[in-house]
Amino acid sequence: MSKNVLVVVYSYTGTSLGAARLMCSQHNWTLASIEETAPRSGAWGSWRCLLDSFLHRRPPIRYDGPPPSDFDTVVLVSPIWALRLAGPMRSFVTLERARLPHVAVVSVMGGRGGPNAAAEIADILGRAPIMTTAVTAREVEDGSCAARLQAFGTAVQSAQDSRAVVRPTLLSTEAL
Ligand SMILES: Cc1cc2nc3c(=O)[nH]c(=O)nc-3n(C[C@H](O)[C@H](O)[C@H](O)COP(=O)(O)O)c2cc1C
């Protein structure tokens, strides 16, 4: 049952990857990652992050994972850059828009911008994520987000399981 959730992460400095790995280990979910075809580093790399956000750019990416459409729910984990969704995750959501099933969003940030990223994903998809949350880099690094991420994951899992249970009842004539 838990195979039906795929976690897709983009991480520049490793913090979002830590959060994604934690959720996968808590729920036995599959992890897949987004890499940039032109990796960034140093001061110019950080400038590119900012420019991506200011200009709403979609940098070229490589996706290393199973087709998202094979899963019932995809959890997107990504950093915030300049109060917006990190560019490579913007690229992924745009490219995979038609193949993405139900989506949940986890933003990893210094402290501000999580709701903007969730709103941007909703805008690209033309539908709202089933659940969204944000954690700070500090909470990931010191482990204090573990209980919250576990509860979030449990809610995502139950939302998915309840869809499987409720649908036949709603369609049954006996329920009328
Ligand atoms: C260029 C750049 C811009 C950032 N802008 C923000 C921001 O606007 N708000 C915020 O809360 N954190 C911001 N951060 C912090 C990152 O979101 C945070 O460190 C995150 O944990 C990085 O995730 P990663 O290690 O997976 O790349 C920024 C980081 C970088 C490199």
In DSSP terms, counting alpha (H) and pi (I) runs of 4 or more, how many helices? 6
Structural class: alpha/beta
Which sheet architecture does the biggest sheet show? 7 strands, mixed
Proportion in β-strands? 15-25%
Principal-axis shape: globular
For the secondary structure, the number of strands is 7
Percentage of residues assigned to helices: 40-55%
Bound molecules: flavin mononucleotide
CATH superfamily: Flavodoxin domain
Structure keywords:
single chain; 176 residues; alpha/beta; Rossmann fold; globular
Short structural description:
The chain has helices at residues 15-27, 42-54, 87-96, 114-125, 137-141, 146-171, and strands spanning 5-9, 30-36, 61-64, 73-81, 84-85, 102-109, 131-136.
Task: Outline the structure in words.
With 176 residues, the chain is of the alpha/beta class. The protein contains 6 helices and 7 strands. Strands 1, 2, 3, 4, 5, 6 and 7 form a 7-stranded mixed β-sheet that branches. Helix 1 crosses helix 6. The structure holds flavin mononucleotide (FMN).
Write the layout of secondary structure elements.
Blueprint: E1 5-9, H1 15-27, E2 30-36, H2 42-54, E3 61-64, E4 73-81, E5 84-85, H3 87-96, E6 102-109, H4 114-125, E7 131-136, H5 137-141, H6 146-171
Parallel strand pairs: 1-2, 1-4, 4-6, 6-7
Antiparallel strand pairs: 2-3, 4-5
The structure holds flavin mononucleotide.
Flavin mononucleotide is lined by residues 11-17, 46, 49-50, 79-83, 108-113, 137.
